[in-house]
């Protein structure tokens, strides 16, 4: 029997590919996208495969709450944003936004989505986070990725993954 898998950031890239691949293997996939336009596009493309598609901005509490009734076996936290720039020039607000999306909102979503998973002792939670660093035309240092990656790895360890 297939698992029920929630994938955030399934509107494009790896999240989208994972949603289709896991659905093809017989799993129930809840594929989430940042906005309704991405959700509509994903729904249009998945007619041959059964995907449950939801609009989910992980930074919005109301969007996260819609996950509470789901009985999940696996959570794949793929939703993320990236940014780059020189540490001496970058606006701190941009760094805060990256941390808000990639760490804090991810943690809040994980707490809601996996509440039932930890009660069911026969399931395994998978927390995966993809951190993408944007490329710039002139040499720039990655100012967020090392800090954020360390925080996400520690979160996964705390969750027992």
What does this structure look like?
With 161 residues, the protein is α/β, with parallel strands linked by helices. It has a single domain, classed as NAD(P)-binding Rossmann-like Domain (Rossmann fold), CATH 3.40.50.720. It has 6 helices and 4 strands, in the order E-H-E-H-E-H-E-H-H-H. The chain has helices at 13-24, 36-45, 61-65, 92-113, 115-119, 145-158, and strands at 4-7, 28-33, 51-55, 74-76. A 4-stranded parallel beta sheet has the order 3-2-1-4. Strand 1, helix 1 (13-24) and strand 2 form a beta-alpha-beta unit. Helix 4 packs parallel to helix 6 (145-158). The protein is globular, with a radius of gyration of 16 Å. It starts with a strand and ends with a helix.
| N-to-C order of helices and strands | EHEHEHEHHH
> How many structural domains can be distinguished in the coordinates?
1
Give the C-level CATH assignment.
Answer: Alpha Beta
Query: Whole-number radius of gyration?
Result: 16 Å
Beta-strand residue fraction: 5-15%
Helical amount? 40-55%
Large-scale geometry? globular
| Secondary structure tally, helices | 6
> What is CATH's topology name?
Rossmann fold
Mean pLDDT: 78
For the record, give the distance between the C-alpha atoms at the N and C termini, rounded to a whole number: 22 Å
Structural class: alpha/beta
Strand order of the largest sheet: 3-2-1-4
Low-confidence segments, ≥5 residues, pLDDT <50?
A: 121-144
Beta-strand segment tally: 4
CATH architecture: 3-Layer(aba) Sandwich
